[in-house]
């Protein structure tokens, strides 16, 4: 839940900090005092769009901070995003946002820099805001369907996945049909190029082997001459290295007994003599195998020439030809699949069948959830001064399947007994619209995971006994979740567990807004002001005291049926 909200240089607020508790809290004050400023500031802290207009005149930047109890559902996300260990208290979530006079925005989560998008990601788990024009979203098909699906606990991920697979399969089929001629030409081109390389049949690593063999055969005579000369010098000439090494060994051995230091030299010469013998043996074997092979050299010339010709034609290094051939074969295989219209049609039909199955299951769930939600909202309407009113949910078949399924949803309302339910958008009375929106909000308030519910003047257009019911409904909600309401109704304010008064006053030629928690006589005076204006009388104060006494012991209203 929301523990603390702080503002600095925001609109007409110079500096403000308010601490909040659980239960039901209200914000009251004169018209224009800035009651909704706190809600606007909180929305900015939660990632809503902001601009330089929120910066108090003459200030460099506006700053908003919000402290929440950290929901368990956010633990994994915070850890993955790197925000989990940025605060000393592991059960607290700190959000901060600044907007400067040029409109530049910065954000932090638990003291670490964050993006506005990340603020929005955590918002749904923290706060659920119902504005005074909440009914407007209830006239949009997307919002209506989302509310019904949430109430019915309908999982849409399998449907969305089936829709995407069907669309992808259908697009592949349509693309193949429209580009059939181009695909066939491309296929023929690739097939011809593959045929050219297949004639060469280049093997991986073959180019390097051919090049090495060609260099050896093209210099065969020079290699043989060099090997013969080296063999002569080592062992076969009259004065060869092996003979000289043996002569040196003999001479040193004759005198080695007179100086032990010569033993190491003798060992070195004997090692050299052994290596010379090995080299001579290797060279002799090499010469026995070496021969001039003009026919093999010609064959190599022809194959290397073929490699070079194709490499130049396709502008690749010769060694890259095997990989190029493999690439073209892969592309040809893909083109063969793309030109297989029968196969693509079968894939599209199978994907459509899978989508139809998922969409049918969702439709069945919506048909089951719609009357349950309608009955619960109808019951709430009776408590909100719409006795005999009726709420219905119409499921309208789409002309064509959509990503959300086979039907859209629309809210229908009959304001009183005997009237025909009509689309919510056509209900003329602003008071009725607000009460219906409140009935829906109360009925569905437990669907979200947010620990804080905010009602921003959703009680506009109601009064009397209905206002008392609204207050009791919000007090009832406050028993399970933190509820914060901006209201102008004394009946609602009297039911609150906590009461804050927002007031504006002149200061230094400017206007500033402050918020003060009230209790006791101060709260009685505020409720009396809401009842009868600025001039307080004994009657209004007594009435206010009575309302507060009744509100403190208000019994919960009867809940509607759950799905």
* Count of alpha and pi helical runs: 19
Measured as a percent range, the helix fraction is: 40-55%
Cα-to-Cα separation, first versus last residue: 26 Å
Query: What would you call the shape?
Result: elongated
Record the strand order, biggest sheet. 2-1-4-5-6-7
Can you tell me the residue ranges where pLDDT is under 50 for at least 5 consecutive residues? 559-563
Total beta strand runs: 15
Whole-number mean pLDDT = 84
Structure class: alpha/beta
Strand content: 15-25%
State Rg.
44 Å
* Largest sheet data: 6 strands, antiparallel
Characterise the protein shown here.
The chain is elongated. The protein has 19 helices and 15 strands. The chain is of the alpha/beta class and 563 residues long. The longest helix is centred in the middle third of the chain and has 43 residues. The protein has a six-stranded antiparallel sheet. Strands 8-12-13-3-14-15 form a six-stranded mixed sheet. Helix 6 runs antiparallel to helix 14 and helix 8 crosses helix 12. A hairpin with a 2-residue loop joins strand 9 and strand 10.
């Amino acid at each position: 839940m929301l523990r603390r909200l702080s503002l600095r240089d925001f609109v007409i607020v110079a500096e403000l900090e308010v601490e909040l508790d659980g239960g039901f809290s209200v914000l009251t004050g004169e018209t224009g005092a800035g009651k909704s400023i706190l809600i606007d500031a909180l929305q900015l802290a939660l990632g809503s769009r902001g601009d330089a207009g929120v910066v108090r005149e003459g200030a460099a930047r506006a700053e908003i901070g919000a402290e929440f109890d950290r929901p368990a559902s956010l633990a994994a996300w915070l850890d993955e995003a790197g925000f989990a260990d940025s605060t000393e208290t592991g059960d607290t979530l700190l959000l901060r946002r600044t907007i400067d006079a040029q409109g530049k925005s910065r954000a932090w989560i638990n003291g670490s820099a964050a993006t506005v998008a990340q603020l929005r990601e955590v918002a749904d788990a923290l706060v659920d805001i119902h504005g005074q024009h909440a009914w407007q979203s209830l006239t949009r098909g997307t919002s209506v369907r989302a509310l019904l699906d949430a109430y019915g606990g309908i999982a849409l991920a399998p449907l969305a996945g089936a829709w995407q697979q069907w669309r992808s399969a259908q697009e592949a089929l349509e693309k193949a049909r429209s580009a059939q001629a181009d695909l066939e030409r491309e296929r023929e081109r690739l097939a011809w190029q593959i045929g050219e390389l297949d004639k060469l049949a280049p093997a991986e690593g073959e180019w390097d082997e051919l090049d090495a063999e060609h260099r050896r055969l093209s210099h065969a005579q020079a290699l043989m001459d060099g090997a013969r000369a080296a063999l002569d010098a080592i062992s076969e000439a009259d004065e060869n290295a092996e003979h000289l090494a043996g002569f040196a060994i003999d001479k040193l051995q004759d005198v080695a007994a007179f100086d032990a230091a010569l033993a190491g030299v003798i060992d070195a010469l004997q090692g050299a003599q052994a290596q010379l013998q090995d080299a001579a043996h290797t060279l002799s074997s090499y010469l026995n195998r070496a021969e001039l092979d003009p026919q093999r050299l010609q064959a190599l010339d022809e194959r290397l020439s073929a490699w070079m010709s194709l490499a130049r034609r396709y502008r690749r290094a010769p060694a890259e030809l095997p990989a190029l051939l493999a690439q073209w074969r892969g592309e040809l295989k893909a083109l063969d699949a793309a030109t297989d219209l029968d196969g693509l049609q079968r894939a599209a039909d199978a994907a459509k069948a899978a989508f139809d199955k998922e969409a049918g299951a969702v439709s069945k769930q919506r048909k089951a959830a719609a009357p349950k939600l309608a009955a619960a909202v109808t019951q709430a309407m009776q408590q909100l001064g719409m006795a005999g009113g009726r709420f219905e949910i119409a499921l309208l078949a789409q002309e064509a399947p959509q990503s959300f399924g086979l039907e859209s949803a629309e809210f229908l309302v009959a304001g009183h007994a005997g009237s025909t339910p009509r689309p919510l958008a056509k209900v003329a009375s602003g008071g009725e619209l607000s009460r219906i929106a409140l009935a829906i909000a109360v009925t569905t308030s437990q669907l979200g995971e947010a620990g804080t519910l905010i009602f921003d003047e959703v009680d506009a257009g109601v009064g009397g006994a209905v206002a008392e019911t609204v207050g009791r409904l919000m007090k009832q909600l406050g028993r399970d979740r933190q509820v914060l309401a901006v209201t102008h109704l004394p009946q609602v304010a009297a039911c609150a567990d906590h009461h804050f008064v927002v007031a504006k006053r002149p200061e230094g030629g400017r206007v500033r807004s402050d918020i003060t928690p009230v209790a006791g006589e101060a709260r009685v005076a505020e409720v009396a002001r809401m009842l009868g204006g600025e001039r307080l009388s004994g009657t209004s104060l007594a009435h206010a005291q009575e309302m507060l006494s009744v509100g403190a012991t208000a019994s919960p209203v009867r809940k509607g049926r759950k799905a």
